[in-house]
Amino acid sequence: MAAPVQSEIRYLNPLSVDVKKKKYCRFKKLGIKYVDYKDAEFLKKFLNEQGKILPRRLTGTSQKFQKKVAQAVKRARHLALLPFVTDMMK
Amino acid sequence: MNSYETVFIATPVLSDLQVKELVDKFQGVITENGGQIVNVEEWGLKKLEYPIQKKTTGFYVFLEFTGEGSLIETLETQYRRDERVIRFLTFKQDKYAQEYAAKRRAKLAHKTTEE
């Protein structure tokens, strides 16, 4: 009986199945209560390359803090601390 | 007596003497109308992320003060009238914002004493 051919196909690199990382709201975890609109570096973590605000499904923040972050980002944009639209921001 | 914080950007073309005079002017506006200045910070000349009135840099000034609600209207009309100020933002500090601001001031004071 021919041994059942196990792995006929040789993959060049192992299948990178991304393990489902449990997303958490960083504000609840770290106990941050106030999102400062003056701290552009911190707010940049919530913006993508073009300077747009990342959706909750990617960052995992809870709705209460997502609204605070969105409000802070809009204030920072008003003060020209953050761009409205840009390319290759990071 | 609510606590507020305000940031305004002055045109970069001013000499630092004029900027000093501008900051004193707005401090005067606040104190005259029954407010107390809690903290003044000058972030200096910073690059703007997008040009405002064809200028790419601006002089940032940050003021923290406590006062009545009516004080804000007079302050903002002063901002609008003064053509050296190209952008301003006033913000009412809620409970958490005040804690954050106090912590930030302590950290700043600590840092300056270190240098």
| Unreliable sequence segments of chain A | none
Largest sheet of chain A: none
CATH class of the domain at 32-78 in chain A: Few Secondary Structures
Give me the CATH fold name of chain B.
Answer: Alpha-Beta Plaits
What is the spatial order of strands in the main beta sheet of chain B? Answer: 2-3-1-4
| Rg result of chain A | 21 Å
Order of helices and strands of chain B: EHEEHEH
Q: Hey, roughly how much beta strand do the residues of chain A contain?
A: under 5%
The helix content of chain B, as a percent range, equals 40-55%
CATH superfamily of the domain at 32-78 in chain A, by name, is Ribosomal protein S18
Task: Tell me the CATH architecture of the domain at 32-78 in chain A.
Answer: Irregular
Largest interface (CB < 8 Å)? A-B, 15 and 18 residues
Secondary structure tally, helices of chain B: 3
Average pLDDT rating of chain B: 91
Number of folding domains of chain B?
A: 1
> Structural class, from helix and strand content of chain A?
mainly alpha
What best-fitting shape of chain B do the alpha-carbon axes yield? globular
Q: If helices are DSSP runs of H or I spanning 4 or more residues, what is the number of helices of chain A?
A: 4
Describe this structure in words.
The complex is a heterodimer of chains A (90) and B (115). With 90 residues, chain A is mainly α. Chain A has a domain at 32-78: 30s Ribosomal Protein S18 (Irregular). In chain A, 33% of the residues lie in helices and 0% in strands. The radius of gyration of chain A is 21 Å and the shape is elongated. The mean pLDDT of chain A is 84. Chain B has a 4-stranded antiparallel β-sheet with strand order 2-3-1-4, with helices on one face. Chain B has one domain: Ribosomal protein S6/Translation elongation factor EF1B (Alpha-Beta Plaits). The longest helix of chain B has 20 residues, at 95-114. In chain B, strand 2 (36-52) and strand 3 form a beta hairpin. Chain B has 115 residues and is an alpha+beta fold.
